[in-house]
Design brief:
With 150 residues, the chain is mainly α. It is built from six helices and two strands; from the N terminus they run ααααααββ. A two-stranded antiparallel ribbon has the order 1-2.
Length: 150
Amino acid sequence: MATPHGSQPPSDRPFERWTAQHKAAVIIEVMKGQLSVPEACRRYGITQGEYRKWFDEFHRGGVDALKLNRKGIDAQYRAEIKKLQAKIGELVMDNEIRKEAMRPFALDEQTSPDSSAPFELLSPESVGSSELPAAPSITKRGPGRPRSTK
């Protein structure tokens, strides 16, 4: 008879190495009522303390909690953490670049039109008046090279 995890119930002989699947099969046999805890311990050569420890771990985390080698799971967690930290760093850098790129366009209330701002804001009143700055005239200088003159 197969267990829900796809493994066969353990044989009556003790194992040299108890895998998570073997432990889970014993626990499931007891849970189904096929064996009592003392019967299972005698049959498989384990102590009731070992069984209780397995059962508690199984109850907390299922088959994965019974695995002896949790290094793989821990390595996956560490890799995921590194990946997420790298993504956070990338997003922080992108944000800093955007802030730096937008700095010339930020309206600073302390900046006056006479300062060395990269551009001058025109008010609606000055658009209709003759106070607009004159556009520079461009003259041809040599083959295809315009030159700006004021």
